[in-house]
Structures are given as structure tokens and as C-alpha cells.
Amino acid sequence: MLLTIAKMSAPSQPSLRVVVLLIAVSAPLALGLETLIREQLLIPMIGAELEEVREFYWPELTDELRRATLTRIAWLLVGVTVAAGALGVALLRRAGRELGPAKIRDRLLLLTSIPQVPAILATLCFAFGSTLLPVLIGIAISTAFVLAQGLVGERMLARGE
Question: What pTM, to 2 d.p., does this model score?
């Protein structure tokens, strides 16, 4: 009886696949949510005042210059996302050799954030005026690397590394 109660009260953890999928969709969801909040809430409420402040303090910062600069930064972040994703996979493989299976899951959850950081920064570029294409490419690359890390982690756990 006591064993049954203990099993019922023990918290169940979601599978590794579910956790990795949730992490993988977080960057696209962040872009969607940020865009929705900005377009439907912030711009209607304070957009005109922000434009006046920008024109007063930074008159040389035209819309074209801002868009071009932020788009270049977003493209740079695409490259950083590729490098960060490769680094995340490499660090996960290295951790698999150094750590036991019990720690791989924890390390995987931490390492999946590596390719997501530059993708999230790219969404901020879009929020301030970048074009959408480099942001979408960065998010797609980030999501692909998170899923790749999940596959690597799952294989390592299956082999018992």
C-alpha cells in the first residue's frame, strides 16, 4: 500500500522528446508573441511618442538607415546561430563521454539554449525594424539545431553513454 502511494505521489517527468520539442518551438513562439504584442499593443499605445523621441534625439537615424543596420545585424546573427548550434552539438557529445546517462538529460536542457540565444536576439532586431527574412532563417536554423541536439541526446541515452 505504501509503495502504491509513493508511486502515485512521485512527479512524472515528460519524455525527452516532449521537452526538446517544447524548447524547439520556443523561439518561433517568441517571435510570434513579440510581434503580436508590438503590433497590437505597443505601437497603438506609444508608437507616435517613440517616433517623436527618436526624431528629436537621433534625427540622423532615418528609417532606411535603421532598417539596413538592423538587417545586417540580423544576418550576422544567422551566422552566429550556425556556429552556436554546432558548438551546442559538440558540447553535448563531449558531455556524453564525460558524464553518465543521468546527467546527459540535464546537460541537454542547458545546451539547447546555446543556438537559441542568437535567434532570440535576431527577433529583437525585427522588433526594432530589421527585415523578416534573416530572422526567420535564424529561427529555423536554431530550431533545427535544438532538434538535432535532442536526437543526439536521445541516442546517447539509448546507448547508455
Answer: 0.81
